[in-house]
Amino acid sequence: MVGMESGQSGVCTKKCGGGNQYRHRECNSPVPKHGGSDCTGLGQAIEKQNCNINPCPVDGGYSEWGEWGTCSKTCGTGQQTRNRSCNNPEPNNEELRNCNTDPCPVNGGYGEWSEWGVCTKEMWRWKSISTPRM
Known about the structure:
The structure is a single chain. The protein is mostly loops and 134 residues long. Helices cover 0% and strands 12% of the residues. It has no helices and four strands. The protein has strands at residues 19-24, 46-51, 109-110, 129-130. The strands form two sheets. A two-stranded antiparallel ribbon has the order 1-2. Strands 3-4 form a two-stranded antiparallel sheet. It is elongated and about 120 Å long. It starts with 18 loop residues before the first strand and ends with a strand.
């Protein structure tokens, strides 16, 4: 499909870290015939949305060992300790997900006024309500 990035329709382009997912529709319901207009003006043929927005896992690694601490005894057999941290890099311990995914409400609004009609007896001027396209 022209205009779609790599990846099949419906399949996310990345397993983590934020990818794109696509879907498409054909102008075939019905197919234009006998000079009928195509689907131009009826919206996009391809839609894209974000997917797999969770950060990619990062395996933590240990830092270098620190210095040895003071011996627990001044004579005889004592013990010393030294430490290292799991911060090289720090492991990823955060997860992310979409929320409030329902579309926001869109209020209807009036369209432009029509032209005044010719007065024959008594006529009313009416205004039609149009709804915004989504």
